[in-house]
Write a structure and sequence with these properties.
alpha+beta; 4 domains; 41 strands; Topoisomerase II, domain 5; single chain; 812 residues; Topoisomerase, domain 3; rod-shaped; four-stranded mixed sheet; Gyrase A, domain 2
Amino acid sequence: MLDKVSIEEEIKKSYLEYSLSVIIGRAIPDVRDGLKPVHRRILFAMHELGNTYNRPYKKSARIVGDVIGKYHPHGDAAVYDALVRMAQEFNMRDPLVDGQGNFGSIDGDAAAAMRYTEVRMSRLAGEFLADIEKETVNFRPNYDNSLQEPEVLPTKVPNLLINGSSGIAVGMATNIPPHNLGEVIDGLLYLLDNPQAQIKDLMRYIKGPDFPTGAYMYGQKGLVSAYETGRGSIKIRSKIEVQSRPKGMESIVISEIPYALNKANLVEKIAALVNERKIEGITDLRDESDRRGIRIVIDLKKGTIADVVINKLYKFTALETSFGINMMAVVNNRPQLLNLKQILEYFIEHRKEIIIRRTRYDLNKAEQRAHILEGLRIALENIDEVVELIKSSKTPREAKEKLMNRFNLSDVQSQAILDMRLQRLTNLEQEKLLEEYKELLKKIEYLKSILENVEVLKGVIREELEGIKKQYATPRRTKIMEYDPGSINIEDIIPDSNVIITLSRNGYIKRTSLDNYHQQRRGGKGIAGANVSEKDFITNLIITTNHQDLFLFSNKGKVYRLKVYEIPEGSRIAKGVHMNNLLPLTGNEYIANIISLRNLDDDKYFLFITKNGMVKKTSFSEFKILRSQGKIAIKLKEGDELIAVKVIESDSEIILTTRNGYAIHFMGKEIRPIGRKAMGVKGIALRKSDEVVSAVIVNGDHRRDLLTISEKGFGKRTDLKNYRVQSRGGMGIKNMKITPKTGAVVGSFLVADNDELVLLSSNNKIIRIKVDEVRRAGRDTQGVKLVNLEEDQKVICFDIVVQENSLQATEG
């Protein structure tokens, strides 16, 4: 009759057994030697084969064959992969296997087949198996009960922290970063002398992980959490330098990358970002790495700010990564989450046990040898009688019994006397025996003191650890940053200097230093401003500073935001970069207006002006959060376009000027604030074939002249008192006399005498003149010639450079 079994209970039991098998027998390292079973079996098999650091290399296939045939009943690929990793300097902080041949690369290249590569234990790995023959660790039967294998290695090296470990078991995982051997031993020595030490005390010695690939580490809070609780997260940043090239150009050089990062994939990712236009200003990307180290070179265009590119590389690539620390290890056949002190304590306890077992073994051997030497000493003192006694005996057995009875010797002592060669009877040999006996007595006394005195035992541990540090410690590779570089604002690096932003009708934008445009007298021809195609022309020119925000409003009524310094810098005659590389514009959408601001105050508004005379006032609060895809700013009627956006306050006055020379002056209070998606209200009733070209905001400041510029380079200043305040929606009054000689109005600005005027012509010439060179005139006048234009050329746009104690750019 079959027994009934609960399927639920049986599944629970079987799954638990499987989980424990995976945890203890495969994925989680032992806290004492820091090794998983496969690594332990590899080192033990190499030790058994005599494949040590001072012996010839052996084929990897030989080692793998021994491991799977004797100790590890799994596939050869799994064993060889583990063996390869133990030899890779970019994976192991202190490699345990010395490999000869192709063992893969940091680019993700696989190692050669095991029949081609050769290995032997590294010198450090020899310390893992020191004294294993002295019964220092327990052995257990292998998988077929034909051999014995160690449960743990009697290592002198705190490997769990030195080389770290990572693994995924069932329901748990471990991820311990590698550390610097010298620092870990310093921490062990301090804890040995100060058992009550706190984690913060140990962190004075163990400062943090030390990765084989170097780089920079930061995230002190996460590190403290990991060391105190066993779990935490740190950040790793690549080592990046900016190097100068001829003709004022620069290159970004990456020489160290985060741990476990595939270099080839990193280079491919950077190339993809350049192709996708997510990172601008890169002209060339090269991987110049060789056996001396990593070297990835990124050449930059002239004028590109290296720090901006570096920040984008950190943002979009794995040049900055997080490392989640999870210090899980097997303790007494149970998985346990450990803090830093516990790991060190378990290692010290392991070393105490190893030394005690080794001492007992050595003491037993020493006492056995001393016992024999005691018998030989007695025989030497009575040599004549001993020789006569042996000569008178008929058999060896009889001689042994006579020696035992005559001199009260043990069986072992009597046998040693009988086995003694005659040459030992010389005076010199007798002295050697007696000297050996004396030294052995001293050794026995010392070994007993280790077992009886805890301080002597600590002294042995200290001496061994100091020896390991002296022989194997290497300088730290990973630099620990005391601060979080993520908190550094890129604006702290970029000077807040004055720049000109120009945008063409076809969507090419650039940033140029204002210093490139020197002042000229009124009537000059100007200097080249931008190299654009014949069918393109500049539509926006803004004087601003690097740290301000650019709010970019499209003809479709959407708004986008960029930092001024994010606009690639170009020379005075450069074409610039296309706006599609910076913003996700769609279809026939283009940027119609740009405003530069330093912050969005709650008591201010955006005023939207359309070509057909519609106006809308919306609070800044509606635009504080802008997605990368932009946001709707105004709803437009069919056939209408957004032509200008201005910043106003609740008591601002507004002047709209038109192409045909009319203007209307009304109070901003007449426009009530409405939401983003609203259409607005009528600002001016346009005459036939007329359209609004600009809006001027009057905030009661000292700029009381309205400067108006025409297409053919004429301009005039008119006192604001000549523009009476009217109701919104009227037809307005005359602003400028328009003739074929002057051409249509381009726009208007409020100015003061000490301001400067920057004009841009359709052949992309820029002229910079003082405002006080433009004479004042009435409303219905054509003004004076400001710039001599070439035939068929016209003024496209202009802006004002405001001269104050603290220079601020106007919103243009």
